[in-house]
Design goal:
By secondary structure, the protein is α/β, with parallel strands linked by helices. 41% of the residues lie in helices and 20% in strands. The chain folds into 2 domains: 3-115, Response regulator (Rossmann fold); 125-219, Winged helix-like DNA-binding domain superfamily/Winged helix DNA-binding domain (Arc Repressor Mutant, subunit A, Orthogonal Bundle), CATH 1.10.10. It is built from 8 helices and 11 strands. Pfam families: Response_reg, Trans_reg_C.
Length: 229
């Protein structure tokens, strides 16, 4: 059974979200503080984290960063509509999705299920020194594995599948997030592209694979595959 960890300092909120997740087939773990959440992540198998931003002691953004440093588990943030800067900060620290309060519990459950839905299957893509295996949800650059969160992997896969064709930020929102109705959508895409480039830069030249086309969006050049060996 797929396991979700719900982290919120309000017991009523964890109960509501937990029940909604159970209706989608999740087994639910609950933590009311960051320290407990980190302990559960170390000791239990977790497939998804639903994380409130505003918490005492270890706030949600800090916790998101600590989780991402040790795991690529999908992370969904819960944040107040008025705190849009928290969304950008959370995405920059590795969150994969967010829901703003007030929200319908079923929305959280459905979007959570989408985050952990069966990974894409398909043909391995090779672009220059980049090798992407959709079925294994893995990406290699120059023979080294890239550690990519769920959303960044989907972004990389989409750009590779449409290499040579510029993708607008609206195109990317629709393909990667499944909607164009995201508050601050352009900034969400820009932040995710920035994080992806940072990871690519650690293993090579990031601009070789994700380029900005002024007025058009982003594109991955149609580079010939690198010779084997």
């Amino acid at each position: 059974m797929t396991t979700a960890l719900v982290v919120d300092d309000e017991p009523q909120m964890t109960m509501i979200i937990g029940y909604a997740l159970e209706t989608q087939g999740f087994s639910v773990l609950v933590a009311h503080d960051g320290a407990t959440a980190l302990h559960l992540l170390r000791s239990r198998g977790v497939d998804l984290v639903v994380l409130d931003v505003l918490m005492p002691a270890i706030d949600g953004l800090t916790l998101c960063e600590r989780i991402r440093a040790r795991s690529d588990v999908p992370i969904m943030l819960l944040t107040a509509l008025a705190h849009h800067d928290d969304v950008i900060a959370g995405l920059e620290r590795g969150a994969d999705d967010y829901v703003t309060k007030p929200f319908h519990p079923r929305e959280v459950a459905l979007r959570a299920a989408a985050l952990v839905r069966r990974r894409e299957t398909g043909t391995v893509l090779r672009v220059g020194d980049l090798v992407i295996d959709p079925g294994a949800r893995s990406a290699m650059l120059g023979g080294r594995r890239l550690e990519l969160p769920y959303t960044e992997f989907k972004l990389l896969l989409h750009l590779a599948a449409h290499r040579g064709t510029p993708q607008s930020w609206q195109d990317l929102l629709r393909a990667v997030w499944g909607t164009t109705e995201i508050l601050g959508g352009r900034d969400v895409v820009k932040s995710t592209v920035y994080r992806l480039r940072s990871r690519l830069a650690a293993d090579g030249d990031s601009t070789a694979y994700v380029r900005t086309i002024r007025g058009a969006g982003y594109v991955m050049p149609d580079l010939p595959p690198a010779p084997a060996g």
